[in-house]
Structure formats: C-alpha cells, structure tokens
Description:
Shape: elongated
Number of strands: 11
Low-confidence stretches: none
Helix content: under 10%
Strand content: over 45%
Distance between the termini: 40 Å
Largest sheet: 7 strands, mixed
Mean pLDDT: 97
Order of helices and strands: EEEEEEEEEEE
Amino acid sequence: xxxxxxxxxxxxxxxxxxxxxxxxxxxxxxxxxxxxxxxxxxxxxxxxxxxxxxxxxxxxxxxxxxxxxxxxxxxxxxxxxxxxxxxxxxxxxxxxxxxxxxxxxxxxxxxxxxxxxxxxxxxx
Length: 124
C-alpha cells in the first residue's frame, strides 16, 4: 500500500525557518492534491496548505506570506518551506495526499493516505 514519509521537523527559535518534506512510495498511478495539516496540543487538526497537481496553492490565513508549499510530480513529493516561524506554529505536521493507487490486480484504487507526522516546535 502507498505510504507517505515525512522528514524535516525539529526545534527552532521564533523567527527561524524549517523545511518539511514528504515522499510517497508504492504503486502510484497519479497524485492529485497534496496537503499539509498540523495539530497543536489540545486542538483539532487544521489544514495549513494545499497544492494541486498543476501547482495551484492555497494557505490558511495565519501562514500566508510565511509558508510556501511546493511539489515535484516526478518524485511524488511535496515540501513545506516555513519561514518567520512563531510559537503558535508549534504542532505535529502531517502530509496528506489524494491519489490513485494501482491494486494487485491492476485496478485503480482511490486512496487518501496520511504521513506519520513530524513535530515542529517553535520556542519564544
């Protein structure tokens, strides 16, 4: 089954930068939208940024002008460049994708996997 593997989280001071990466592996026919979500302690998971296969992007208002989402369709990967980080950006960041997987019999299966999550901590 298709898996999403994230990397790049860590601890950074307020105003610093981090870059998150996520790579999909498995029998993939096509990946449509790819997204980054985050979940802060005690809060619900929220959509941070999304990018279509054609490169159209959308961001939650709180990160506009600071975060940039990008993707490499040839590598089935998505990244999130996070600049001017704030303590309120702290949380577990999850990669998510809307894709078509190739089943064992050659059939196409719609699948929306999640990555395992990577911790981002911004200190004040």
